[in-house]
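User: Predict structure, ligand BV8.
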Amino acid sequence: MTSDHAESIAAARTAIQSSRNPCCFSGAGLSAPSGVGTFRDPGDGWWSRHDPMKLASPEGFSEDPELVMKWYAARREQMAQARPNAGHLALANRKDIVQITQNTDDLLERAGCDRLVQLHGDITSDRCHGHCGHVERVDMSNPPLDRMCPACGDERMRPTVTWFGEALPSSAWSLAEQTARECDLMLVVGTSAVVYPAAALIEVASRSGATIIIVNSEATAASPLADHELIGSAEELLPRLLESS
Ligand code: BV8
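Assistant: Predicted complex:
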């Protein structure tokens, strides 16, 4: 840990300690140390092997439902092996921090976060693509493949996640927007900040006067908004930022 790194951690810690209404906005980089693939990191990112607009979209699903469900099965099996890391646990121990996440895994929940807003849905269940309302939890270590909805039989089952071109869950979005407007500090963790409208929450918080602290392994599109930017792994930095000394 270089000395200026230690100084920037100390400055960010002071800002967090004096905040009265903190929130956290997280992305795939928070779960990466748990072995869950990110979306845009070169090399192992999920999108590097597949075209996101093809696999995480209604068009891609109707074009090749078997391929899409095989992609989700691979991701689910990877997530089934994952455990919450020190970053998840450090966040879970701070019950004063509202968690807004783009992640569809259940690691923040399993770490013990109870104030959790999942903007892009939840990969641990499937629902009827035709909105008959049928939902079922899936066995992540033995995930289902392409199949028709057992309730209506008219449409296929698909993950309860928000695909490109689909609206975010309205209750989650309005809660996240209100939280971003009212917070006095936003901790932005492990996101490339390129997916909208989620990434706009950082601008909303900044415009409302909140202190923006970014924890990421590289600079991102949100870097210009940062009051403090800590470049490094969330698994290592979050305990240093959040744990009481
Ligand atoms: C909407 C769920 C309107 C699925 C996801 C053209 C066509 C269609 C739409 C659009 C278009 N152009 C623009 C759009 C809008 C589109 C969009 O933003 N596209 C972008 C990509 C250009 N948005 C949408 O379509 C949204 N819906 O606009 O609807 C509408 C309104 C009303 C009615 C109907 C429609 C829906 C967006 C949601 C898409 N779903 N996922 C699934 O998971 O399969 S997005 C996907 O990206 C994930 O959810 C993920 O969370 C999200 C963001 O990615 P990140 O989390 O940031 O991950 P990434 O890999 O990018 O970055 C990780 C970062 O962590 C990196 O910086 C890395 O350096 C860092 N890192 C790595 N390791 C660590 C680390 N940092 C710290 N520590 C570490 N150890």
